[in-house]
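Hi everyone,

Forwarding the result from last night's run.
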Amino acid sequence: MSAPESFAIDKIHVPEKKRKALKQDVVDALAESILESGQREPILVRRDKDHFVLVDGLHRLEACRALGEPAIKGVLISAEEARQRELPPPPPDPEREKMERLRKLRLEKEEADKLSAMRGGQGAHAAMRPRAETAGGSGRTAATKPTRPAAGAAPKTLSDWIKQQERSGGRY
């Protein structure tokens, strides 16, 4: 950013959109502060033909105008810089936030599993896994038949549900 310079207040145009954000109580407080200690922060303006357009510092400009100042300290910036300042920050991406939350949960779960394994347990998942039965002590696992869900149990897959409907005479 370049060094602050002095700009004639009457040569600075304030866009209508910015003017709507003017709060008179803020202007009054800034005017008192400027009277006591001077203008500390320069305004930002951009060049537009024969005048300047205010980019930032509406309340400071209006406070100096209310005090009857002929000029105000400001910094001249390019139109491109002004456009960058006026662009709102990009909205948060909900998909990215969701993925970040899931990643955090996964990391917390992995940490909890590590802690339980260090305490002598086998981890949260080991208790949930069915143990394979060995056939005849040979170390090989016996072939297991898929089990049918109990009559009142909720089916786990769509095909289980269809089979359950067929058995009970329901239509699907």
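The mean pLDDT is 80.

Cheers,
N.
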